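Apologies for my clumsy wording, but are you able to produce some protein sequence, whichever is easiest, and the tokens describing how it folds?
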Amino acid sequence: MRKVLFLIVAVLLAACSTTPEQRAQRLVTDYIKSTANDPSSVQDVEVSFVRLKKEMDIKGNWLKRHYTVVEWREKNVYGALVNQSVVVKFDEEVTEIICFNCFGS
């Protein structure tokens, strides 16, 4: 029982020690592969930077959001490799994508 509890605590600590860039890379790669025409063709997913920005919601509350520029290559519907580039917005802890291809909005 103690070994199981120790293992659970170790996994949780390891998950919490990742940087925002690493979490963004994982989230974006998973999202791109799940929406690509040919998921096996996705190449060179690169998260350029993760920037923290404050913005106000409709109710007047200040929110912290992370923005990043993502570039990758994938096959389009015709089978040709094309370069893609988008702006992605994440929540404060970089645990979910709020907006994909949002260009700063």
Notes: The chain has one domain: 19-100. The first helix runs from residue 2 to 16. The two ends are 49 Å apart (CA to CA). The chain is about 30% helix and 40% strand.
